[in-house]
Amino acid sequence: MVVLRSKNEIEGMRRAGDLVARALVLLGPHVRAGVRLSELDRIVEEFIRSEGGEPTYKGYRSSYTVPAFPGTICTAVNEEVVHGIPGPRRLRDGDIVGIDVGATLGGWVGDTCYTYPVGEVSPQASKLLEVTRECLEAGIAEIGPEKRFGDVGAAIQELAEYHGYGVVRELGGHGLGHELHEEPHMNHIGRRGRGMRFREGMTLTIEPMINEGTPEIRILEDGWTVVTADKKLSAHYEHSLTVTSSGCEILTPWHLLLRKTAELA
Ligand code: MG
User: Fold this and answer.
1) Residues, CB-to-ion distance under 5 Å, ligand 1
2) Which of 29, 73, 44 is nearest to 262 (CA)?
3) What digits encode the pLDDT tens for the residues 205-222?
4) Residue 264: what pLDDT?
5) Is residue 191 part of a domain?
6) Measured in angstroms, how far is the CA atom of residue 265 from the centroid of ligand 1?
């Protein structure tokens, strides 16, 4: 069942979204060569708790056969796509690292991701980050009450494939609200004019995972870490958003916070 949220409910989700966006931006200066992923995890957990929130991913179970997720953030370095565990690994110059943050605040969930370059990255890595972020923007530009899910998927797929990249199929965007994963599921591939219609008050994520090579993925032995099957790079950006009468509103405004930070620098 797809739930449509009231103005009050969306205000709650705006606060949760703002919290995870601020957590992502706060982490930026710490994402550098030598830092352990576990240290980044600690910084975000402390920040979320200091703001009265709870880490949403910690203790999350995807199935009974996989251990509960141990981190506050999910990390994804280089060929890792999503859902990596933030362990003792140290980042190295030239890595790219996706940082996914989920927090529950006042009963509402915010979910967002940003892929950071670590130090100087290759031109290929830099282009992948740029195009993946453009894919997120192109998908978001298609959202509105007159549009369908296929319009978003098609916009993302066309742009990624134009650059020779693969769009991950098995994982997608999702409804969110009181729970991290609610209906509906959102594919990042599709055909225009097809699929479910957007309706005002829907709350969901758009989060294209774009691979430098083929779209195929594998899951590592830990039961969590998703990697590209061909070991090439993958990038991931995510916003939580709500459908409005004229389009949509982004609930996790890291793009605005980053712009502000850049202006101050
Ligand atoms: Mg998500």
Assistant:
1) 111, 205
2) 29
3) 999 999 999 999 999 999
4) 64
5) yes
6) 30
The answer on pLDDT for 122 being more than 90 is: yes
Residue 1: inside a domain, yes or no?
A: no
- For residue 57, report the distance from its CA to the centre of ligand 1, in Å: 10
Domain, as residue range, for 217: 7-264
Report if residue 126 sits inside a domain.
yes
Question: Can you list the pairs that 63-66 forms with residues at least 24 positions away whose Cβ atoms lie under 8 Å?
Answer: 65/223, 66/223, 66/224
**What CATH number does the domain containing 191 carry?**
3.90.230.10
Ligand 1 centroid to Cα of residue 263, in Å, is: 29
With respect to residue 158, please indicate whether it lies within any of the assigned structural domains. yes
Task: Determine phi and psi for 88, rounding to 5 degrees.
Answer: -75, -5
Confidence of residue 60 (pLDDT cuts 50, 70, 90): very high
Single pTM value for the model: 0.96
CA 46, 47, 51, 53 torsion: positive or negative? Answer: negative
For residue range 134-144, list pLDDT tens digits in order: 999 999 999 99
| Cis before 184 (ω within 30) | yes
**Structurally, how many domains does the chain consist of?**
1
Please tell me the distance between residue 173's alpha carbon and the centre of ligand 1 in angstroms: 6
